[in-house]
From TrEMBL:
GO MF annotations in UniProt: ATP binding
InterPro entries in alphabetical order: AAA+_ATPase, ABC_transporter-like_ATP-bd, ABC_transporter-like_CS, MetN_ABC, MetN_ABC_transporter-like, NIL_domain
Ranges of residues in domain ABC transporter: 2-237
Entries under SMART domains matching the protein: AAA, NIL
Protein name (Swiss-Prot/TrEMBL): Methionine ABC transporter ATP-binding protein
Keywords, sorted A to Z: Amino-acid transport, ATP-binding, Cell membrane, Membrane, Nucleotide-binding, Translocase, Transport
Pfam families tied to this protein: ABC_tran, NIL
Residues making up the signal peptide according to the UniProt record: none
Length: 313
C-alpha cells in the first residue's frame, strides 16, 4: 500500500533520511520507532509529499506520488489522512466545523457535509459534541476530532505523527483502541511514528526501527521476535547487559503453558539456572525471553531439543 524506495532528504548539512526503504502492506498498522532526531517526522512528511524528498520515490496505493504535479498530487493526498501530536484543530471553529473543513475544501455540498460530519463524529465516539469548541474538550477528545477530520475524505491510508505523545497513559490506550478498531472495521492502513515502545506493542503488526536517518531493522513483529539478536526483541524484553559469559538467551513464542524448561531438565542430564527473564503480551499472545546458564554433560542435546520446540536461541 505504501512503498518508499531509496528515500533521501538533506537539509543543508543535515542528512535527515539516508536511503530509507519502507513497505507497508494494505490493512496493516506499521510503526516507525526511533529516538528524537532519527528522521521519523521527515519520513512521514515525505510519504505524503508535504516535504519533497531529495531523492527516492514514494508510491501510495499504486500511485507514484513523487511523479505527480500539484493538481494530481492534491487529489492523491485526499486519500491520505493525517493526525498530529498537538491535534492541529482550528480554535475558531466548532468541532463539527473542524471535521467539515476538508469536505469544504473538496467542494462537498452542505447537506452531504452535515450528514458525513454526524457519521464521522459517531464513528469516533463524539456524537452530540459537534457544537462544542475545541477548548471545551479533553486531549483525548481533541485527538478524536483530529481522527474524524482525517477520515473525512475516506482515505485508504492514515498517517499518525506521534498522535498519543501528548496524552496520559489511559487516554493513549483509548486512542490506540480507536485506531485499531478503525483499522479492522474500515480496512484502514495506518503508518504511525512514535518514540513509545508501548504503542508498537499495543497495536502494530510491523515495525521499522530508525536511527540517524536509516532503518536499522524492519519487518513484522512476529518475524523480528524470532530473529536472533533483533533490536526490537532486546528493547521489548530488556535483560541486563552485557550477558554473563556462557549464558544463553531463549525467546519463547509458542504456547506459554508448555513446560519446556522443566521438560529439558527431566529429559537431559543438565541443570538450568535462571539469570533473568521478561514476559509480554504481544498482539494477544504471550512472548517471553529468559536468560539461563546450562551445565551438564548433555548441554548440546538440550539446546537441540529447545530449538526443536520452537525456542529461539
Ligand atoms: N525543516 C528542517 N530544516 C532543517 N533540519 C531539519 C528540518 N526538519 C528536520 N531536520 C533535521 O533532520 C533530522 C531528523 O529530524 P526529524 O524531525 O525527522 O526526527 P524525528 O525522529 O522525527 O525526531 P522528533 O521525535 O524529535 O521529532 C534532525 O537532525 C533535524 O534537526
Amino acid at each position: 500500500m505504501i512503498q518508499a524506495s531509496g528515500l533521501r532528504k538533506v537539509y543543508g548539512n543535515t542528512v535527515a533520511l539516508d536511503g530509507v526503504d519502507l513497505h507497508v502492506r494494505e490493512g496493516e498498522i506499521y510503526g516507525v520507532l526511533g529516538q528524537s532526531g532519527a528522521g521519523k517526522s521527515t519520513l512521514l512528511r515525505c510519504v505524503n509529499l508535504l516535504e519533497r524528498p531529495t531523492a527516492g520515490t514514494v508510491t501510495v496505493a499504486g500511485q507514484d506520488l513523487t511523479a505527480l504535479r500539484s493538481g494530481d498530487l492534491n487529489r492523491a493526498r485526499q486519500r491520505i489522512g493525517m493526525i498530529h501530536q498537538h491535534f492541529a484543530l482550528l480554535s475558531s471553529r466548532t468541532v463539527a466545523g473542524n471535521v467539515a473543513f476538508p469536505l469544504e475544501v473538496m467542494g462537498v455540498p452542505r447537506a452531504e457535509r452535515e450528514r458525513r460530519v454526524t457519521e464521522l463524529l459517531d464513528l469516533v465516539g463524539l456524537s452530540g459534541r459537534g457544537g462544542d469548541r475545541p477548548n471545551q474538550l479533553s486531549g483525548g477528545q481533541k485527538q478524536r476530532v483530529g481522527i474524524a477530520r482525517a477520515l473525512a475524505g475516506n482515505p485508504s491510508v492514515l498517517l499518525s505523527d506521534e498522535a498519543t505523545s501528548a496524552l496520559d497513559p489511559a487516554t493513549t490506550q483509548s486512542i490506540l483502541s480507536l485506531l485499531k478498531r478503525l483499522n479492522t472495521e474500515l480496512g484502514l492502513t495506518i503508518l504511525l511514528i512514535t518514540h513509545e515502545m508501548n504503542v508498537v506493542k499495543s497495536i502494530c503488526d510491523s515495525v521499522a526501527i530508525m536511527s540517524d536517518g536509516r532503518v536499522e531493522e524492519s519487518g513484522t513483529i512476529a518475524d523480528l521476535i524470532r530473529t536472533p539478536g533483533s533490536r526490537l526483541t532486546r528493547e521489548i524484553f530488556p535483560l541486563p547487559e552485557p550477558a554473563p559469559a556462557g549464558s544463553i538467551t531463549l525467546t519463547f513464542t509458542g504456547d506459554p503453558h508448555q513446560p519446556v524448561v522443566s521438560e529439558v531438565v527431566r529429559k537431559f542430564d543438565v541443570d538450568v539456572s535462571i539469570l533473568g527473564g521478561s514476559i509480554e503480551n504481544l498482539a494477544g499472545s504471550a512472548v517471553g525471553r529468559l536468560r539461563v546458564s546450562l551445565s551438564g554433560d548433555e548441554e548440546a542435546s538440550a539446546l537441540d531439543f529447545l530449538r526443536a520446540r520452537g525456542v529461539v536461541l
